[in-house]
Each structure stands twice: as structure tokens, then as C-alpha cells.
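Recap from last week: sequence in, structure out.
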Amino acid sequence: MIGYANPTRTGYADRLSALYRKMLLHPTYRLLLFVLGAPITILLYGMHVRHNVVSGHAKRAKDVRNELLRSGLLERLIEESTEQLRRKQRFFGQTANEERLRREARRIATRKFDAAAEERVRTVQAEEGWSETGLDEAFRRLIRRPVLFAVSLALGLPMYLLMGIYANAYLKYIAERLLMAVFVIFGVAFLVFTILYISPMNPAANLLGETATAEQIAAFNRIYGLDQPYWVQLWNSIRGILTFDLGNSFAGNENVTTSIANKFPVTVTLTTIATLIAIAIALPIGIVSATRPNSFFDYTFMFIALLGLSIPNFWQGLIFILNFSIKLHWLPATYNPQNWLSAVMPIVVLGTGLTAAVARMTRSSTLEVIHEDYIITAKAKGLSNRQVLWRHAVGNALIPIVTVIGLQFGGMLGGAAVTEKVFNISGIGSYIVDKQFIPDIPAIMGGVVYTAITISIVNVVVDLLYAFFDPRIRSKMKQY
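Predicted C-alpha cells:
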């Protein structure tokens, strides 16, 4: 015992065992500890049982239970439960089944006896100064022995990595949200596939035409696995998502992963540029409107923002093409990756609604914050209006603004199909629209799922920005 009682090592072991004990209290992390560190859990359980047997704790707890049995507590509880059940049946006018009544009474009495026995064991533990050690105590004894700790590190490295993530508040925050994003992605995949599966549309008949024979349709279904049961097809789709191999599309027999890899960057690039430009325009407009409420600037900016929210994308795109392409010949009517001018109109159309939404949210959020008590206190301390605005007001007003930006960005990714169709952009939105009328299940699944992945990543970034802008969230992260 003295050979490994180094103070530094003991302090480290205590901290690590305290972390292990804390994780055991959380059901999800307890399950992950047992799964990722299965060999360690088996070893700890063996140490736990051996320690309790050697120390006599298990025998002492059994003796306490036997004492209660000899005292007749269980029989008294059975009689009390039986009488209570009989009174209940008489009150409701029910016919008593004696055998079933006694069986139910024994079940209730056994549960009460077990609770009383556990309470008595805890009382005796406190009076006599002994206690039954758990897995956390076994873990503490294990890691205080260098050889056993090295063996456990080799056998349970994933478990120790999980503990390292849990110990760091920021890594834990990120990991939990990434895990939630994974559940969202597979939830979306399950929902989309189910909707497509129960859809009345027949891919084989739509692609092969009305002249297709029953044998041709059956051969098509057999080739693409459409004749298999629902769960088999669902598993094949999920497995394709995990392996990034979604197979070939029904129309054109194209590799879905390759097609998405070629089309998805276009949509993401245009959406990202539109978002950045919208933020650069909307934030100053919203702040100016909030600092000068009911002024000419406020009314003008908010009126323009309202127009931006009201204009449909397809109508705005067609008006732009009619004026800037056909009449003025300033900009190309269709998108061409080799000509950056062709991206101007799609970016403006995509960013109009976002700019309006962010500007209105910035105004309302900033206007609410600048009337808080701490802003008045900051002004009373002699800070200038500029310092109060940028140091105290804007930072606290950014939380709802970031939320709107994240939601709008996700909506633009999914709703860019209309804009892509208007400007003939070969992006993921128009790709999904073209495939959904067949329905081309592999292609639609690929487009929707990878869009969900992008939106989930954006939401994780938004959650991280919450912690960056709001110190209250950071403090909660460390306390959790």
C-alpha cells in the first residue's frame, strides 16, 4: 500500500476517480463508460465483488437482511398489503380472487421489504462505520497502482478519451452537439426514406414509360432493390450514408455521391457569399435604426426590409433578368462558373430576404437591450455612447441575431432550388427538384441528407457562437 502512495499520484487518482464518479451519475455517460470501457468495467466489477467479499461487507449486509426476515417484517407487510387490497376491492365493489390477491400482496410487500432492508443497511453502515464500495472506489484503487493503470489504459483507451472530453467543458459542449447532429441527420434520413417509400409514385413506370411491360418493371425493381422489404431498403440507404456510397441514380445511372460532390459546392458557395454580404449590410442598418428609433432612417430602412421580406425569390429573379440582362445587358441571364458576373444576381436574390430578416431582428434586439438597467449604469459611469453601444449593447443583442442567421442560412440551402431554377444553376436544390418527380430515391436521399449534414454543422457553429458571445452560457457549461 505504501509503495504507490505518492502524493502527486494520489491527488491525480482522486481527481480521475471523482470524474469517473460524476460520469456514473449521468445515465448516458454511464452507458458510454460501460460500452467504451467494457474490459475495464468487467475488471472493476471483479475488484468490487472481491473487495466486498474479503472485507465481509456483503456478508454483513446479508446478515442485516436475515435479521429483518427473522423479525417477521415480511409477514407483517404481506398481511398489511392483503388487508389494504381487500378494503380497496370492497370499496369499489369488486369480487375478490384470493389467489391473485395474495400474489399481488406479496409483490407489494416484497418491494416494501427490500426498501426497508436497504434503509436498514445504510443505517447500520453509518452506525458501525463500514460501507460497501462501488465501481468508483474500485476505479480509484485501480488507477493508484501504476501497473494496473497502464493495463487499463491499453484496454480502455476509448473510455479514457471520453473522460478527457467530459473533463473539458468546451470539448464536452462540442461533442454533445455533434452527437445531437448525428441523431438529427439519421432522423431526417429515416423520415425522407419513409415518405418516399409510401409515395404512390412508381419510379420504374415513370422512367420506363407507359409502354413498359410487367417483366421490364419487375427487372428494374430487382436491379435497384425496390422489390426488397422496407427494412432492407432502409438499411441499405443508411449504410450508404455511413460509407458515403449512395449507389447510382435511377435516371442516367449516375453515381449519386459524385453528382452531389459536383453540385453541392455551388449551392454552398453562393449561399455563403450571400449570407456574408447580408450580414455586412444588415447589422449596421439594424443598429442605426435601433439607436435612432422613429427617425427618417429608421422608417426608411425598416420599410425597405419589409419589402425585402415580401418579395418572392422567383419574381425578383425574373425581374432582375428582364432588366439587367435583357434590357440593359449588364449581367448574364444564366449562371456560368467561369464568369463571376453571372453570380451577382443569384447572390442578391438569395441575400435579399436574409438581409431584411437580420436587419429587423438586429433593430428589435438592440432596441430591447439599450433600455436595460446595466446600459443606464454604464452611461452613468461616464462611458461614451459608442463604448456603451459596442461594448455592452451589441454583444448582448447578438444571441437572437445569430439564431436568425443560422436558421435563414439553413433555409437558403434548402430553399435555393427556386433561385437555381430561375438562373439555371446546376446546384443541389435544382438537383433534388428534378429527381423528386420520378422519384429517384438514391439521388433524393443523397441531396437531402447532405443538406441536413450542412445545416447540422451550421447549428453546431451557432451553438458555439452562443458560448462565445454570452458569458452566462460559458459559466453554465463549466458547471454542468
